[in-house]
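Bit of a strange request maybe. I'm writing a small parser for structure token strings and I need a real example to test against, not something I typed by hand. Could someone generate the tokens for this chain?
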Amino acid sequence: MKDLLYKAKSIKYLEAESYAQNSLGVIYRNISHYEKALDVHQKAYMLAELANNVELEVISLNMIGVVYRRMDAIKPALDYHKKALEIANRAENPSDRLKASIAVSQNSMGNIYLTLKQYDLAIKEFEKSLIIEKEFNNRLGLAINYQNLGYADEALGKLELALKNYKRSLDYNNQINSEVGRVICYNSIGQVYIKQKKYGDAKVIIEEGLKKAININDQFYISSSYINLGWTEMEMKLYKSAEENLKKGLEIAENYSLKSAIVEASSKLSELYNRTGNYKEAMTNYKKSVELEKTIFNERNMQYVSDIIIQYENEAKNNEIKALASENEIVKSKLERNQKIFWFTLLGLIILAGLVIAFNRNQQLKQEKQILTLEQDMLRSQMNPHFIFNSLNSIKLYIINNEKENAVYYLNKFSKLIRKILIASTEKEMTLEDELDTMKLYMNIENIRFSNEIDFQVEVDKSINTSNIRVPSLILQPFLENALWHGLSSKEDNKSIILNVTKPSEDYISITITDNGVGRKESSRINNNKILKRKSVGIAITKARLANFSKGFTSDYKINIEDLYDAAGKAEGTRVIVNIPIRSNVLKIA
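Reply from user aminoacidic:
Good idea to test on real output. This should exercise your parser:
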């Protein structure tokens, strides 16, 4: 390649020079010389621009993105792949090479979504890329995309499907005789075997992958192979050799700044030392893993919507200041009115009565303000910044994918939802009609991250006038959130939530929320196995609010949660029944 580069320069053949620089970059990348790889790919891009060759421009940008992705630098990787995709999509009649580059960009975008744990979005990108690769029968592209689909399936816990895709990838790699591809597949298949507790099979295939990784001198996969081998031996209770291999993997990862590999090796060493009773080393490695993982997580996620979040927080603070100022003006106006009464009152008893009234009024205002503040805190705890962050992130992904109509549609929905939340934050109660409308908006926004797979239905008994019934603001949101994230997030397909409103008695209405998710028992098991557990306090707050709301009514609130099972005793969802009182008790209020 260097010889080709020299000859291309001598005859000023820019396209050949750009091609040679990109080929050198791939070689440098595969032996983990990332800075050199970036340098030659950048030169290749500049040469392609000078030659006005769009195909080479797109290829060079994609190659730069791949190097940054290997370095765990997600932001620049995304920027370069996005730029490559934009340039390629501008071509009116794209050539076959340009279509192939589009497939590479889509695959790389999918890899970035994998890193961000947006697995459904990643699968969509890989499937788009597969369509193009199948069209051209590009076996290398097919091998890469099936391998990446396996990653996403494995992350979602679909081990058999992951194994099937890994073996498809291995078949294509064997057809093109790709040693790098074999190394990747051997390690991936080995990891699935470990999770299936087939440790002997895992050890054999990972050791074979390690040999091949050493032969091709790819430090990234040498490190990964040592870590996977150490993991396998730890499960086989071969602790001494497991420690040696994990340390080798960690050393290589640190020498080449492979952050994800450092996190994995440190985590596995922590587990090993914990099993062998070396708790000091276990804690040291655990802290190292967690701290670096937090750093990577922040670098990968916060940069995408941090500006929007800051803007939103500033706006929220400004609105809060305006609301307080308005409230102060009302209080000031009332005090001035009382002062006028005082000055125009001639009799001492009337003056004294006016002062007593003013004092009681001030005490009442303080009490009302305290209750309002409590309600606002409760509402903010339900619609928290985490939800807003994820909603904005999902909308931004539509923008990144150039899906303008979807972005505008959901941004309008999001703005309406935020407006309703802000209105609700000033009111303790709202009509049942407004509550149901707000929940429809909320489900519409949350459904973005489920690829609109959730069938959400609202059924209201015809005898109920929802505009005349008042309920606590946003009281149903925590139950819908639980149905989404504990019931349906772990389910593959046929996801539905039905919200039914009936009136069994003149004293109360009954709201039933039924999902066809995995059930509470399975959800609890899945949550316990997660590193980052989703903790919800919304139900406790909701009960407190309903208890306060029920004080003025003849009957108390009631919440029942039922686990649903089919005829074979298999869990098929959860039903939540909330009874909200509607008949007031005048004596209780007095």
